[in-house]
Amino acid sequence: VQHLQIIKKTPPSKEPFKFFPLSLPVTLRFDQAQVHNLDIITAPGKRVRLDDILLNDALWRGDRITIHNSSLLLPALRLTGVDAQMTFRDHWPIHGTGQLAVSALTRQNLQPVALRVQGPLDQLAVQGESRWPDPLQLRGQVRPLDPGVPYVARLQWQNYHWPVVAAQQLYSRQGEAELSGTLDGLSAQVSTD
Q: 7, exposed or middle or buried, with CB in 10 Å at 0-12, 13-18, 19+?
């Protein structure tokens, strides 16, 4: 599919998202599928664009969707090797894993972050690990249905060689960064030795 739009026709509301059970009366299966330019339009002038979605072994049976080795590709990040399932009942719980590469940090030799996501769609718990060049651990929460997609996270490290300004050989025995923000920006408080 070259261009797909999902348009919300109801007027904007401050009401929270309503989780209705959703079940297909048939089974929908894709061995392989690609959507280029998926636009989700929630109000006039409010658009979220997903550049490329690559699905492999995707199945929607009843109220459950499962995907394997799939990808979401955006200019700023790449989410690959995604294995996930989502159930359209209760608060639409998701359980998934994948590899996240952030374009700006890949140029600084940050290896892809191994991510695990679980929980209800309105409040996802995220865990991750990476090497940049030493191990980093991430734990946080994201609220994808709230305006601006707010998130909080804690990044922790031990015996870390900072890859920025390599000539200065910056080293930290231990530390952490408290991260918070929305799609519009990020705030970080760093504490290290």
A: exposed
What is the C-alpha separation between 29 and 9, in angstroms, rounded? Answer: 28
Q: Over the stretch 17-76, which tens digit does the pLDDT of each residue have?
A: 888 999 999 999 999 999 988 888 877 777 777 889 999 999 999 999 999 999 998 878
Q: Burial, 70: exposed, middle or buried (Cβ in 10 Å; 0-12, 13-18, 19+)?
A: buried
pTM for this entry:
0.82
Report the Cα 132 to chain-centroid distance in Å. 20
Token reading at 87: 């159930």
The owner of tokens 């209760």 is 90
In DSSP terms, which residues pair with 34 in a beta bridge? 54
The model's confidence at residue 104, banded by pLDDT at 50, 70 and 90, is: confident
The answer to whether 152 and 170 are in contact (CB under 8 A) is no
